[in-house]
Amino acid sequence: MTRSTTERRKSDSEAVPAPVHEVAEARRIERRADILIFCGLAALGMGFLMPLGCGLFLTGLIMTHRARKRQLPMRPFIVTIIAAVMLADSFGNYLGWGLDMFASNSVLSRIAMMGWGSLVDGGYFWQYNNIGIGGAAFHGEKSFEYACLFVLYPLRVAAAIALFQMKRWALQWSIVSCWMTIFWLVPYMLNFTIYYERLEHIAFPVTGIWLFGWVYFYPIYVLPWFYTVKKSWFTD
Amino acid sequence: MTNLAARNDLTASTEMQRRADRYIYIGVVLMGTMILSIAGLPIFLYGLHQLRIAEREGISTRPRVVTMTASLMMVASLTTMWQTSLDLFANHTLITRISALGYGLLFDGAYAWNYNALAIGGAGGITEKPYQVLCLFILCPALLASAVGLMKMTRWGYQNSVIFAFGNIFTIVGYTVNMAIYHDIRLDAAEFGVAGWWIYNSVRLVVPLAILALLFTLPKESFTTDQIASEVQPETTP
């Protein structure tokens, strides 16, 4: 059991141990809320079930919020939010890139990719499914798909789930996963620049990818938080 | 051991370490240039020899396995930086055209077929470029810095080595997928094919795995230079 969640924190400086029955109550509410949050995020990541996912996720958040108002020793709100963003990002990319890699000929991905491609990223539109491996027509895309689907996102999902449990190793693995995002984004952006044809002849050239792309930059904003957060929050 | 004796021992050990490290760093940098690799090897070995002498004299030195890992990281990063920077920026110089062609014909066809035929220059496999920028500007400098931290036995050196070893694994996975997708010009056309590429690049593939295995097995407490220094502060009388 983590120290941070067994204390009722009035401020960061004075931490008072919470009574046992309050801790048990908080754990019970947290577990119920986490089930809703997990299901909501999984649905959010599917894209098509986004409204349902939003509802479940917000219900879970409200449950934890109410418990926190009752002065129960709950997990810090920011931890829930950051872990949730990490999970939603991983699940969303699993679906998008998983479809492009393995199910590029299915009706679902052909419809979804045409939309994405004609609006934001021409790599998913022009010559789609024309190369031997299928999917996006630009080879450089595949290497990032494999590296992210098999290295980055499994690591991030594990880290996010452990963040929900306030484990110490979750903090360390989140830092690793945030750095890995930088390893992914920099060459990916360069790939875009080299294949600038991807950004031409589409509805929102260049601006479109930045509008959507900033979502992927969140690990860069979160990384300083991971380095400066009180490590005593995360103690197995 | 009294505090004073401990402090003297620590001074002797840091002095000895610094002297040996100078040879190790010079040797590593020379080995990293690839052209002067052979000149760097004896200097590096001399540095290791000095560390061994210190060990035999009973002076506490850094664990040998840490020295080896940090050196491996530095050599791998420096050789990668050398290759990628030549291919990115100096792809029309004589030295690049000769060395890249040799490497291309033997191991990786992208550096031989259609070399310099793209607008951006350099290797003909265009997906090579993002990985070159990644290695040259992010991965390898970060690995170099972590290796120096590791040589100093600092905690940040330990943590950053873990982080960037994982980054290295990510890079290698993506790079290998690229090799597989462009197998027709890159691996089929080369003299030694797939086997040659694996043999040549084994150092870079083994380095991150070796670092991770090593760092996760070593006791974390040994990576605390500052703490040891503060423990043996001379006693102050009020």
Largest sheet of chain B: none
Oligomer: heterodimer
Strand order of the largest sheet of chain A: 1-2
Overall spatial form of chain A: elongated
| Strand portion of chain A | under 5%
- What radius of gyration of chain A results from the CA coordinates? 20 Å
> What's the average pLDDT of chain B?
85
Q: Total number of helical segments of chain B?
A: 10
Note the run of SSEs of chain B as H and E: HHHHHHHHHH
Number of strands of chain A: 2
Characterization of the model:
The complex is a heterodimer of chains A (236) and B (238). Chain A is mainly α. Chain A has nine helices and two strands, in the order H-E-E-H-H-H-H-H-H-H-H. Chain A has helices spanning 3-6, 20-45, 50-69, 77-102, 107-119, 139-164, 168-194, 207-213, 218-228, and strands at 7-9, 15-17. A two-stranded antiparallel ribbon of chain A has the order 1-2. In chain A, helix 2 (20-45) runs parallel beside helix 4 (77-102), helix 4 (77-102) runs antiparallel to helix 6 and helix 7 runs antiparallel to helix 9. Chain A is elongated and about 65 Å long. Chain B has 238 residues and is mainly α. Residues 227-238 of chain B have low confidence and may be disordered.
Compact summary:
The complex is a heterodimer of chains A (236) and B (238). With 236 residues, chain A is mainly α.
Secondary structure topology:
The complex is a heterodimer of chains A (236) and B (238).
Chain A: H1 3-6, E1 7-9, E2 15-17, H2 20-45, H3 50-69, H4 77-102, H5 107-119, H6 139-164, H7 168-194, H8 207-213, H9 218-228
Antiparallel strand pairs in A: 1-2
Helix pairs in contact in A: 2-3, 2-4, 4-6, 6-7, 7-9
Chain B: H1 3-32, H2 37-56, H3 64-89, H4 94-106, H5 128-151, H6 155-181, H7 183-186, H8 193-200, H9 202-217, H10 225-231
Helix pairs in contact in B: 1-2, 1-3, 3-5, 3-9, 5-6, 6-9
Tags for this model:
heterodimer; A: 236 residues; 2 domains; two-stranded antiparallel sheet; 9 helices; elongated; B: 238 residues; mainly alpha; 10 helices; 74% helix; disordered C terminus
